[in-house]
Amino acid sequence: MALSSFCLEDSSPRLISDNTFENFTEIVTKEGYKAEQHTVITRDGYIITFFRMYNETFKERNCTPVFVFHGVLMSCDSFLDLGKASLLYTLANAGYDVWAGNARGNYYARHHVTLNPDYDREFWNFTTDEIGGYDVPAQLDHVLLITGHSKVSIIAFSQGAECVCITLCELPEYNKKVAIYFALAPTVRLLHSTSLFFRLLVEGLVGVDVLAPKFKKFVELVCGLRGTLGVPQEACGDFIYLLDSYHPGSMTPDIIERLYIHFPGGTSFKLFIKFGQSTLSLYFQKFDYGNDNIKIYGTEHPPQYIIPNLNCYIVVFHGPNDNILNKTDLLWFTNQLPNLVEYIVVNSTLFNHFDHMYGKDTPDLVFPTILRYLSSYTLF
Length: 380
Fold this sequence. Notes:
Helices cover about 35% and strands about 15% of the residues.
């Protein structure tokens, strides 16, 4: 019997945007960029597809590659949702060799050498521990192998930033492979999260293994209901605001439309359970199996990630209106970093957690700082 999943079966295909089912290479190629599809197999057997893109004008520059990693329920496509002003286009236009990564469980990474995601529970037995322990290092190694560079710069958001932190804490040798790391709202600890809805959502999820993989009919229904019921596009952003904090006008109708084409990308419920554990824990630690910790880890409590092991150059961004990631938790993290370059509170009072990805003003508020530090810390 197939594993249960959230998939709505109605459809209204006439209302689908032209690029609803285009993959990453198709989208960026249409915008005039060069793109390549790459595949890696992690040490535990997950098959992950990710992408390289660049502006052909700068092909001969051989600059340090930039690896970009998405947040929960997203994919690398989410970094295109700001349209022509998106981070990936901005990086490519500045001459960088851009690599857009993916995490196991999303629609680019629903394959395994032996497990079937539709029938094998074990496929969905993962959290950020495994994404950071296996997925990120496999993709980083591939980037360095293909480009011939010894270092890569990294930009990651939210859960993706947490996963990169796990890589650098758990496998400290990877710090030497990182030129500079930009952590956008890294969710390493959520003890002081003030988002009531987020806390209610993630605390105590049990019993289901797969969360919202991307199905064509699900996307059709979301787009169709918006049109047939006369729901304004702005209202479709209310789910994001409900999780985070209200920032009126931050997401334009075009951004919202692209967001719901690519979201949700898919992940496991176990990962959300770990989010719930993070809202209750003082530490940045591995998944808590309760009474089974002794059997799994050999200790009564789950091992903590050693934050000072993360010793590459790192720039951390945070929104002053972020209700998911509280400043107290983020400062707890940054105060333990031996090579923190800068802790940046974005200069916009209403800038929230998801604005890092979807805020229309983010290209002006965040991207210039990233480009400035990239030019200082990388080979160009």
